[in-house]
Structure formats: structure tokens, C-alpha cells
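Quick one: structure for this chain?
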Amino acid sequence: MSIDFSEYTLEELLQSLESVDDIEFADNAMTIYKLVLDKLNLDYKSVDAKALGYESGVFTEVVFMGLISFPLASLVKDQHLLNANMRDKINRLNDRISKHTI
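Got it. Here's what it folds into:
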């Protein structure tokens, strides 16, 4: 049974993209990713994690490395890991698209 993602909002699609295993469920991940690109009117060639809002800066890097500690540091670390995971996932998805469009 396949999931119909076509009625999902952009926020729901991004949440789904974050949670889907793009290796085990490659077709679902690709469907979600293409819908995100369509909703944002973007071409995969110009999209990276930063363009979709998954960006880590110097502050998150420093917190992630443990050089700064404060009460909400674990949330910053979680966001840093999410950003890194999404960067890798989007790179894999873009790579798959490029291989199928050549």
C-alpha cells in the first residue's frame, strides 16, 4: 500500500522527509522530495539542505563539539544532527535524480 503525499502541506512534507529512511524507503523519500521541490518551485540542481532551512552555523558546531554547555545545549545538538542528516539525505536524493535524468 503506497501513501498519497499529494495532499500534504509543505510543513507535513518536510516533516515526512525528515523522518523517512531514504535508503530503505527510497521511492517514498523521492516522492516526498519531488513534492517539496514542486511546492517551492525549485529545481533539484539548485537545492541543498541550506536552501530548505537545514543549516548549521558556527554556534551549533561549537555546541555540538561540547565547547559550550548551557541548559538547552541538547536541543542545539539535536538540531545540528538533524541538519547534518538532512544534508546527507538531500545529497543522496539529488544524486539519484541526476543519475535518472542523464
